[in-house]
Hints:
Elements: H1 11-21, H2 32-41, E1 52-53, E2 59-63, E3 72-78, E4 84-91, H3 102-110, E5 114-115, E6 120-121, H4 126-132, E7 140-150, E8 156-173, H5 174-181, H6 189-192, H7 195-217, E9 227-233, E10 236-243, H8 247-270, E11 274-278, H9 285-294, H10 305-318, H11 323-334, E12 338-342, H12 369-382, H13 391-424, E13 431-440, E14 443-448, E15 453-459, E16 469-478, E17 483-487
Parallel strand pairs: 1-8, 2-8, 15-17
Antiparallel strand pairs: 3-4, 4-7, 5-6, 7-8, 9-10, 11-12, 13-14, 13-16, 14-15, 16-17
Helix pairs in contact: 1-13, 7-8
Amino acid sequence: MHAHHALHFNLVAAAHASMLEHGFQPDFPAGTETEIAAIQARPKLPAAPDAKDLRSLLWSSIDNDTSRDLDQIEWAEHLPDGRIRVLIGVADVDARVLRGSLIDSHARSETTSVYTGVKVFPMLPVELSEGITSLNENEDRLALIIEFCVNEEGCVTGGKAYRALVRNSAQLAYPSIGTWLAGAGPAPEKVAANPQLAAQLKLQDAAAQRMLDCRFQHGALDLETIETRPVMLAEEAVEIARLEKNRATALIEEFMVAANGVIARIFDGANVASIRRVVRTPKRWDRIVEVAAGLGGSLPSTPDSKALNDFLLAQKQKDPDRFPDLSLAVVKLMGPGEYVLVKPEEESPGHFGLAVQDYTHSTAPNRRFPDVVTQRLLKAWLARGPQPYSEDDLNAIAERCTSMENAARKVEREMQKRIAAVVLHPRIGDRFRAVVTGVNNYGTFVRTFDPHVEGMLVRGAKGLDVGDRVTVRLVSTDPERGFIDFEA
């Protein structure tokens, strides 16, 4: 029997309840509006006599279609020796959000914006994160500039940071820019209308492709976990779209990794304690070796990111449909990232998945509190002033950020399941192509190919194992619990 009617389930209310359940305070505290009004009453550009004026450069940003909290803009130029000089402008959130203020204390507690698919729960009030601290198109802003060069081998050389005035000339989006950079579609309107902007983006892409090749040679992992977003119509989720990685997402990711490395190395050179983002060498490497052996691969007995990536690349070519599931298994076995205090002259545990040793979070201060802290540490060093946080402070902040990021992942995962249950409800009785993704004491789980959703096989699971292809029929959905049930 088909259930042809849509299911009216309040996903926004469910998201709010999930935030509370996992320890967030999704509503800003009393007094926030007064602080916002005071910030808005200040001059449009805070005084910064040490800031360079770089507003004449052709800056642009690339983000999701729906992003309003713009943290990062980019610009590049070719140098006579073949290197590409890259400048990353990061929103100077600290210039507006004073340490110890009500807004800052709330951000320190929440530590991150949470993106639930149906509603964003921002770390900072939208008047700031989408307004005066966002690097919005055609607005003058204060920024921290992270500068580095990329040589012809793709290695990042040099690296410095300073304050500047900037102006974003073009707010661009991943899907259209990525398609154009890959030669698979036309230039977006803003790019087509501005040959200088087109040349600028091509140069940035060239730098990013060089850097990507270099990181892969050093063992960065080419993982492909599938991300989705709901398609909303009149506040109802009606479809699930797959978020595709492309040349534009790779461009921003490479620049972000390089910028974060530059800041970490500046702190090392200055003997400044800081918060680092780490993914430790996998404790469950033996299980990763077993997974590879089960697929005909061979990995060394000691952790080796280069060997793991070579295996992943071979599997991606051999079985692209199941590669996202392999990627997800490897991600889970590597363990989650965490924030840690790194003291002066102390070696960072590094980031196994990115194959980098020096890594902090610095490029998203509108949506992540560690980046605001990094910004304050950097500005204090640039001003040759005292550091704003003690090592005990930094350690406590790092632990809180790790804890709340884990909580944010749980909220986002719960909401993905609820959204899928709502979207699929009218299709009860329909059949879908699927692959078995898990078999354990709880049951047998499958992932459908179109749309990309996970569910349990409540009937017909006998004899099935991970990786088996199967056609399944949708039996029921329960948005409250995020359950989707199929039968084979």
